[in-house]
Design goal:
single chain, alpha+beta, Thrombin, subunit H, 7-stranded antiparallel beta sheet, 4 helices, 13 strands
Length: 297
């Protein structure tokens, strides 16, 4: 009887131990499954981060490449512009040197060809004269006595176009008048009268006696001559001046204005006078300020 009881106890203990092992095994399996799940989740998160970083790197690389391409394109454009500008400047310098060579040899054709486009003939119901464009916008300067007491002023340009001109103002003392037409032409450039020297060659372009756009040449005979107005501001030349030359430009050999042809003494030949360029500029700006509230030169 005791043996049977002992045997039963042993069997029960073995069964209990087996259950413990089985429970431990299941617990291990469950932990292993959870650990694997966590591992997979972590790996998936890392993969997503890596993929996101790769996309960011691709975008950064693309942006840098596009920036480099754009910078190179801009640099090439700037180099081409510099080359083009240099070539244009060299061409302009060459043309200017050619004109200077021509003028030095007494051939003023290059200077006159450009300058005459800025000269105009002026006709009123009382007189004829000359003038020239001094600023873009159709501003023309001439002598005050050319347009004095006129009821209508007409301007004829080099290309034979006729315009009615508006009188903006006149300086009687310096004998300068400022006109304006409705079109615009290339103005002549002024040179400082401080650089004018006796003996220098000069050119006068004008409309003498109604003969449009004639050219005469000569030299500077004297500077700082006094006029009837008391101003020591006249360039004396031996250029042949006729009544229609009044208001036209006196040019140096580079085609720059050094004076406005004004008068000659009686019937004397080769004794003409031009108001020096600095005085002309001052007069024009004074007249413009009075009408436009701004200077134009």
């Amino acid at each position: 009887m005791a043996r049977h009881h002992e045997k039963g106890v042993l069997e029960e203990l073995g069964l209990h131990s087996h259950r413990k092992h089985r429970n431990a095994l299941w617990l291990f399996v469950i932990v292993l499954i959870v650990a694997q799940g966590l591992g997979f989740w972590y790996l998936a998160s890392e993969v997503d981060l890596v993929e996101q970083r790769l996309v960011e790197l691709n975008l950064e690389t693309k942006g840098e490449l596009e920036g480099l391409v754009e910078e190179e394109s801009i640099a090439q454009t700037e180099r081409l512009n510099e080359v083009s500008s240099t070539v244009q400047q060299q061409q302009a310098d060459f043309n200017q040197e050619l004109k200077l060579l021509k003028s030095a040899s007494g051939d003023f054709s290059g200077v006159v060809e450009d300058a005459v486009k800025g000269v105009v003939g002026i006709a009123t119901d009382r007189s004829l004269g000359s003038g020239f464009f001094v600023a873009s916008g159709g501003f023309v300067v001439t002598n005050e006595h050319v347009i004095a007491e006129a009821s209508r002023i007409r301007v004829q340009t080099f290309d034979r176009q006729l315009y009615d001109a508006e009188l903006l103002g006149a300086d009687v003392t310096r004998d300068v008048a400022l006109l304006k037409i409705s079109d615009t032409y290339q103005p002549l450039e002024f040179a400082s009268s401080g650089g004018v020297a006796v003996g220098r060659k000069v050119i006068a372009i004008g409309n003498p006696l109604g003969l449009s756009f004639t050219v005469t040449e000569g030299i500077v005979s004297a500077i700082d001559r006094e006029g009837a107005n008391g101003l020591d501001a006249y360039v004396q030349t031996d250029v042949g001046l006729n009544p229609g030359n009044s208001g036209g430009p006196l040019l140096d050999t580079q085609g720059h204005v050094i004076g406005i042809n004004n008068f000659k003494i009686g019937d004397a030949e080769s004794l003409g006078f031009a108001l020096e360029s600095d005085e002309v500029v001052d007069a024009v700006n004074d007249l413009a300020l009075g009408v436009l509230n701004r200077t134009i030169l």
